[in-house]
Amino acid sequence: MAAMVQCVNIHKQYLQRKALSNINLKMEAGKIYGILGPNGSGKTTLMKIIADLHRQTSGEITICDQSPSYKTRALVAYMPTENFIYAWMRVRDAISFYDDMYQDFDRAKAEDLMQFMELDMKQKVSSLSTGQRARLKISLTLARRAQVYLLDEPLNGLDPVSRTKIKETIIEQFSEESTMLISTHLVLEIEQILDYVFFMNHGEIVIEGEAEALRMERGKSVEEIYTEVFSHA
User: Fold this and answer.
1) Which tens digit of pLDDT belongs to each residue from 137-196?
2) Is residue 62 exposed (0-12), middle (13-18) or buried (19+ Cβ within 10 Å)?
3) For 9-13, 25-29, 75-79, 184-188, which range has the lowest pLDDT when averaged over its residues?
4) Which of 115, 139, 152, 154 is least surrounded by Cβ atoms within 10 Å, i.e. has the fewest?
């Protein structure tokens, strides 16, 4: 099967600090991938390179068989950890902002997602709780008809209700024609929806494989494998 995303020998260096080393990965349509690792392991740097927000020092990357450019940026829906929606906006303004920004944005889907997420269209972003802001961010991201979805720590710091709603939304909205990469260190919360996992530490992929195959091979959950791998990280 053709790769939606392929990285070959990706390295990233910031002056004297190595951020990524020899990253090789392939993502196919119809699968949800997880990058699992502690903070500072290189997860966000890799996502930003795929999103064409950072450039690798060396190596090659392709998105739907194209080198990163303005064309591939139109194929990728990236949700960063930062709160990127202006605080002065209301929820409905954020929808209009995305509708103007992205040709693949589905406004009707966004409005349906806001209802499911229990977000008031008239409410100001500045008044939203942390969990509500996270629900808004992921709703806007998943309302795009993208080929590649990148979700950076989507469950971090959220209440149980928000975590559940976000996981349900990912499952319901994921298209078999697209691919998704989720970075997280909250493995227990997310492992049941992951098809394939990459364990990252110090900028390198240290273990990878189909999630179910790893569970069968090691007789442990993905979370237990994570704890074992990173117990001394």
Assistant:
1) 999 999 999 999 999 999 988 889 889 999 999 999 999 999 999 999 889 889 999 999
2) middle
3) 184-188
4) 115
Q: How many CA atoms lie within 13 A of 2 on its CB side?
A: 8
User: How far is 35 from 23, CA to CA, in rounded Å?
Assistant: 12
Bridging pattern class, strands 76-79 and 196-201: unpaired
A 10 A CB-CB count for 69 gives 10
- The confidence score (pLDDT) of residue 136 equals 96
Which residue from 70, 29, 68 is spatially nearest to 47, judged by alpha carbons?
A: 68
Q: Please, are residues 136 and 117 in contact by the beta-carbon 8 Å criterion?
A: yes
Checking if the pLDDT of 15 tops 90, the result is no
